Amino acid sequence: MKDLIVASNNKGKIKEYKEILNKYGYNVISQKEAGINIDVDETGTTFEENAHLKAYAIYELTHKNVISDDSGLEVEALNNEPGIYSARYKGIETEDERNNYILNALKRKRNRKAKFNCVICFIDENGHEELFKGIWNGVIAKEKSGTSGFGYDPIFISEDGNGKTTASMPIEFKEKYSHRAKATKLLVDYLENNNVL
Ligand code: IMP
Q: What pTM was estimated for this model as a whole?
């Protein structure tokens, strides 16, 4: 079994990838565990471009199988913000404060529709690249709740969520339904159909 490096320093993301992909028999390691200590600048203007930038930077250093993802929340009534800027929206430092900002911004809005996006970029050890996209539709809650997951999970109620925020659901819920789970399923289908690892 070959290693698959996750080009990310985001602990929440790495944990989710390990949980999902280890089940399929892949030896998932973080870039830190692979001995790489860099933070790639996300200078792209789309999820696709940023996913590519992150994976390619690690591939260039290792020439091993690499995945990265660029993900984020789009809120319809906020012109699809924060989008690719989800991790640093409005320069706000903490996840909790970013959640408060969105709840406030939506206080007088009827339209609470939102969606999570995830684009995974896979580069194999020969440098061949593939992109996989997953989308998770939902709405923004009226208030925060729950402690599982990360980021915007306390304010996101998915279409599969029975009215509860993603952070109020057990971890298995995201493994099954999330934007990341959907993109990962496409990645796994590709890896298995092409005998890549
Ligand atoms: P990235 O590391 O540039 O892809 O940033 C992704 C950001 O989007 C995270 O820091 C979170 O703010 C948000 N995000 C992405 N996926 C999720 C999720 O599954 N739950 C909650 N927030 C997420």
A: 0.92
